[in-house]
Amino acid sequence: MRIIALQGSPRRDGHTAALLESFLSPLRATHTVKRIDVCYQHILPCQSCYACQSSSACVTDDDMQDLYSHLAYDDVVVLASPVYFYGVTAQLKAVIDRCQPFWANPSQRKTTRVGVLLLTAGAPDAHGTGVSTTESAVRIFMACIGAPLSYVLSATNTDAVPVCKQHAVLEAAAATAKKLAHATKGGEICV
Ligand SMILES: Cc1cc2nc3c(=O)[nH]c(=O)nc-3n(C[C@H](O)[C@H](O)[C@H](O)COP(=O)(O)O)c2cc1C
Protein backbone atom coordinates (compact mmCIF):
# COMPACT_ATOMS: atom_id res chain seq x y z
CA MET A 1 0.00 0.00 0.00
CA ARG A 2 1.21 3.48 -0.80
CA ILE A 3 1.46 6.31 1.69
CA ILE A 4 2.05 9.95 0.74
CA ALA A 5 3.10 12.18 3.63
CA LEU A 6 3.20 15.95 3.20
CA GLN A 7 5.36 17.67 5.82
CA GLY A 8 4.44 21.36 6.09
CA SER A 9 7.13 22.86 8.31
CA PRO A 10 10.13 24.69 6.89
CA ARG A 11 12.12 22.97 9.66
CA ARG A 12 13.02 19.61 8.14
CA ASP A 13 14.04 18.20 11.53
CA GLY A 14 11.70 20.19 13.74
CA HIS A 15 8.84 19.15 16.01
CA THR A 16 6.47 18.23 13.19
CA ALA A 17 9.11 16.11 11.46
CA ALA A 18 9.79 14.30 14.75
CA LEU A 19 6.10 13.47 15.18
CA LEU A 20 5.78 12.45 11.53
CA GLU A 21 8.83 10.18 11.65
CA SER A 22 7.54 8.40 14.76
CA PHE A 23 4.40 7.70 12.78
CA LEU A 24 6.07 6.71 9.50
CA SER A 25 8.94 4.61 10.88
CA PRO A 26 6.89 1.50 11.74
CA LEU A 27 5.16 1.70 8.35
CA ARG A 28 8.28 1.87 6.19
CA ALA A 29 8.88 -1.88 6.44
CA THR A 30 5.46 -2.83 5.08
CA HIS A 31 4.29 0.13 3.00
CA THR A 32 5.68 2.28 0.21
CA VAL A 33 6.16 5.59 1.99
CA LYS A 34 6.94 8.88 0.26
CA ARG A 35 7.58 11.95 2.43
CA ILE A 36 7.55 15.34 0.75
CA ASP A 37 8.70 18.47 2.60
CA VAL A 38 6.43 20.88 0.78
CA CYS A 39 8.40 23.98 1.78
CA TYR A 40 11.21 22.80 -0.50
CA GLN A 41 8.97 22.23 -3.51
CA HIS A 42 8.11 24.86 -6.07
CA ILE A 43 4.36 25.06 -5.54
CA LEU A 44 2.55 28.28 -6.36
CA PRO A 45 -0.71 29.31 -4.72
CA CYS A 46 -3.98 28.83 -6.65
CA GLN A 47 -4.49 31.81 -8.99
CA SER A 48 -8.23 31.26 -9.25
CA CYS A 49 -8.12 30.90 -13.04
CA TYR A 50 -10.83 28.19 -12.89
CA ALA A 51 -9.21 26.28 -15.76
CA CYS A 52 -9.76 23.12 -13.68
CA GLN A 53 -13.53 23.61 -13.98
CA SER A 54 -13.40 23.13 -17.73
CA SER A 55 -10.24 21.12 -18.36
CA SER A 56 -10.37 19.01 -15.16
CA ALA A 57 -6.65 19.62 -14.59
CA CYS A 58 -4.60 22.41 -13.07
CA VAL A 59 -2.72 24.33 -15.75
CA THR A 60 -0.03 25.75 -13.43
CA ASP A 61 3.15 23.91 -14.36
CA ASP A 62 5.16 23.42 -11.17
CA ASP A 63 6.01 20.66 -8.67
CA MET A 64 2.34 20.25 -7.77
CA GLN A 65 1.93 18.30 -11.02
CA ASP A 66 3.98 15.44 -9.49
CA LEU A 67 1.78 15.42 -6.38
CA TYR A 68 -1.64 15.13 -8.02
CA SER A 69 -1.46 11.40 -8.72
CA HIS A 70 -0.25 10.67 -5.17
CA LEU A 71 -3.08 12.73 -3.69
CA ALA A 72 -5.60 11.10 -6.01
CA TYR A 73 -4.57 7.44 -5.75
CA ASP A 74 -2.24 6.68 -2.83
CA ASP A 75 -3.98 4.58 -0.19
CA VAL A 76 -3.06 6.77 2.76
CA VAL A 77 -2.65 10.55 2.74
CA VAL A 78 -0.82 12.07 5.71
CA LEU A 79 -0.71 15.79 6.37
CA ALA A 80 1.72 16.98 9.04
CA SER A 81 2.04 20.64 9.98
CA PRO A 82 2.88 23.04 12.75
CA VAL A 83 -0.06 25.26 13.67
CA TYR A 84 0.60 28.75 12.31
CA PHE A 85 -2.00 31.27 13.53
CA TYR A 86 -4.74 28.63 13.85
CA GLY A 87 -4.12 26.98 10.50
CA VAL A 88 -1.52 24.97 8.59
CA THR A 89 1.60 26.67 7.19
CA ALA A 90 1.22 28.82 4.09
CA GLN A 91 3.23 26.33 2.03
CA LEU A 92 0.91 23.44 2.93
CA LYS A 93 -2.15 25.66 2.44
CA ALA A 94 -0.90 26.31 -1.10
CA VAL A 95 -0.96 22.55 -1.74
CA ILE A 96 -4.47 22.32 -0.29
CA ASP A 97 -5.77 25.16 -2.45
CA ARG A 98 -4.17 23.65 -5.54
CA CYS A 99 -6.42 20.62 -4.98
CA GLN A 100 -9.37 22.58 -6.34
CA PRO A 101 -9.37 20.22 -9.41
CA PHE A 102 -10.56 17.41 -7.09
CA TRP A 103 -13.41 19.59 -5.89
CA ALA A 104 -14.29 20.58 -9.46
CA ASN A 105 -14.09 16.98 -10.72
CA PRO A 106 -14.57 14.54 -7.85
CA SER A 107 -14.45 11.50 -10.12
CA GLN A 108 -10.72 11.93 -10.74
CA ARG A 109 -9.62 10.52 -7.39
CA LYS A 110 -9.98 7.19 -5.65
CA THR A 111 -12.31 7.08 -2.66
CA THR A 112 -12.25 4.75 0.37
CA ARG A 113 -8.81 5.91 1.37
CA VAL A 114 -7.41 6.85 4.73
CA GLY A 115 -6.49 10.35 5.91
CA VAL A 116 -4.12 11.14 8.76
CA LEU A 117 -3.43 14.52 10.37
CA LEU A 118 -0.45 15.24 12.63
CA LEU A 119 -0.13 18.69 14.19
CA THR A 120 2.30 20.41 16.51
CA ALA A 121 1.67 23.67 18.34
CA GLY A 122 3.83 25.81 20.56
CA ALA A 123 1.26 26.89 23.12
CA PRO A 124 -0.06 24.74 25.96
CA ASP A 125 -3.65 23.50 25.54
CA ALA A 126 -4.90 25.83 28.27
CA HIS A 127 -3.88 28.88 26.20
CA GLY A 128 -5.65 27.79 23.03
CA THR A 129 -3.38 26.43 20.35
CA GLY A 130 -5.48 26.47 17.21
CA VAL A 131 -5.29 22.68 16.86
CA SER A 132 -9.07 22.28 16.67
CA THR A 133 -9.62 25.05 14.12
CA THR A 134 -6.81 23.63 11.99
CA GLU A 135 -8.29 20.14 12.24
CA SER A 136 -11.74 21.41 11.17
CA ALA A 137 -10.38 22.95 7.97
CA VAL A 138 -8.19 19.94 7.15
CA ARG A 139 -11.10 17.55 7.77
CA ILE A 140 -13.13 19.25 5.03
CA PHE A 141 -10.16 19.17 2.65
CA MET A 142 -9.45 15.48 3.24
CA ALA A 143 -13.08 14.58 2.59
CA CYS A 144 -12.85 16.57 -0.65
CA ILE A 145 -9.88 14.54 -1.93
CA GLY A 146 -11.50 11.24 -0.91
CA ALA A 147 -9.25 10.47 2.07
CA PRO A 148 -11.41 11.30 5.09
CA LEU A 149 -9.55 11.80 8.35
CA SER A 150 -9.39 8.57 10.32
CA TYR A 151 -6.51 9.42 12.63
CA VAL A 152 -5.61 12.76 14.23
CA LEU A 153 -2.72 13.34 16.62
CA SER A 154 -1.32 16.53 18.05
CA ALA A 155 1.65 17.53 20.16
CA THR A 156 1.13 20.86 21.92
CA ASN A 157 3.31 22.95 24.23
CA THR A 158 6.33 22.49 21.98
CA ASP A 159 7.66 25.92 22.99
CA ALA A 160 8.28 24.46 26.46
CA VAL A 161 8.77 20.74 25.76
CA PRO A 162 10.21 19.64 22.41
CA VAL A 163 8.36 16.82 20.67
CA CYS A 164 11.40 14.56 20.95
CA LYS A 165 10.89 14.69 24.73
CA GLN A 166 7.11 14.15 24.61
CA HIS A 167 7.37 10.39 24.94
CA ALA A 168 3.64 9.75 25.37
CA VAL A 169 2.87 11.55 22.10
CA LEU A 170 5.64 9.74 20.23
CA GLU A 171 4.39 6.41 21.54
CA ALA A 172 0.84 7.35 20.50
CA ALA A 173 2.13 8.09 16.98
CA ALA A 174 3.84 4.69 16.76
CA ALA A 175 0.73 2.97 18.15
CA THR A 176 -1.47 4.76 15.60
CA ALA A 177 0.87 3.60 12.82
CA LYS A 178 0.48 0.02 14.02
CA LYS A 179 -3.31 0.41 14.01
CA LEU A 180 -3.12 1.73 10.47
CA ALA A 181 -0.83 -1.13 9.41
CA HIS A 182 -3.37 -3.57 10.82
CA ALA A 183 -6.25 -1.74 9.11
CA THR A 184 -4.50 -1.93 5.74
CA LYS A 185 -3.20 -5.47 6.04
CA GLY A 186 -3.53 -7.63 2.95
CA GLY A 187 -4.18 -4.67 0.67
CA GLU A 188 -7.66 -4.00 2.06
CA ILE A 189 -8.52 -0.85 3.97
CA CYS A 190 -10.67 -1.49 7.00
CA VAL A 191 -10.65 1.40 9.50
C1 LIG B 1 4.37 32.00 12.15
C2 LIG B 1 4.10 31.12 13.33
C3 LIG B 1 2.81 31.03 13.82
C4 LIG B 1 2.52 30.19 14.91
N1 LIG B 1 1.23 30.12 15.36
C5 LIG B 1 0.93 29.31 16.40
C6 LIG B 1 -0.40 29.20 16.88
O1 LIG B 1 -1.34 29.77 16.37
N2 LIG B 1 -0.63 28.37 17.94
C7 LIG B 1 0.39 27.70 18.58
O2 LIG B 1 0.14 27.01 19.56
N3 LIG B 1 1.67 27.77 18.12
C8 LIG B 1 1.96 28.56 17.06
N4 LIG B 1 3.26 28.61 16.57
C9 LIG B 1 4.29 27.72 17.14
C10 LIG B 1 4.48 26.45 16.28
O3 LIG B 1 3.24 25.85 15.98
C11 LIG B 1 5.33 25.44 17.04
O4 LIG B 1 6.56 25.99 17.37
C12 LIG B 1 5.53 24.18 16.20
O5 LIG B 1 5.72 23.06 17.05
C13 LIG B 1 6.71 24.31 15.25
O6 LIG B 1 6.89 23.09 14.58
P1 LIG B 1 8.16 22.81 13.65
O7 LIG B 1 9.35 22.69 14.55
O8 LIG B 1 7.85 21.56 12.95
O9 LIG B 1 8.27 23.96 12.70
C14 LIG B 1 3.56 29.45 15.51
C15 LIG B 1 4.88 29.55 15.01
C16 LIG B 1 5.15 30.37 13.94
C17 LIG B 1 6.56 30.45 13.39
Largest beta sheet: strand ordering: 2-1-3-4-5
Which class in CATH terms? Answer: Alpha Beta
Give a quick account of the main beta sheet: strands, pairing sense, barrel closure.
Answer: 5 strands, parallel
Mean pLDDT: 95
The helix count comes to 7
The poorly predicted ranges are none
- Count of the domains: 1
Give a count of the beta strands, DSSP E runs of length 2 or more: 5
Task: Indicate the structural class.
Answer: alpha/beta
Estimated helix fraction: 25-40%
Look at the structure and name the CATH superfamily. Flavodoxin domain
Shape: globular
Unique ligands:
flavin mononucleotide
Q: Kindly report the CATH topology.
A: Rossmann fold
N→C terminal distance? 14 Å
Radius of gyration: 16 Å
> How large is the share of residues in beta strands?
15-25%
Order of helices and strands: EHEHHEHHEHEH
CATH architecture descriptor: 3-Layer(aba) Sandwich
Brief overview:
By secondary structure, the protein is α/β, with parallel strands linked by helices. It is 36% helix and 17% strand. It has helices at 15-24, 51-55, 64-73, 90-97, 100-104, 131-144, 167-183, and strands spanning 2-7, 32-37, 76-82, 114-120, 149-155.
Characterization of the model:
- There is one protein chain.
- The chain has 191 residues and is an alpha/beta fold.
- Helices cover 36% and strands 17% of the residues.
- The chain has one domain: Flavodoxin domain (Rossmann fold, 3-Layer(aba) Sandwich), CATH 3.40.50.
- It contains seven helices and five strands, in the order βαβααβααβαβα.
- β4, α6 and β5 form a beta-alpha-beta unit.
- α1 runs parallel beside α7.
- The radius of gyration is 16 Å and the shape is globular.
- The structure holds flavin mononucleotide.
- Flavin mononucleotide binds next to α1.
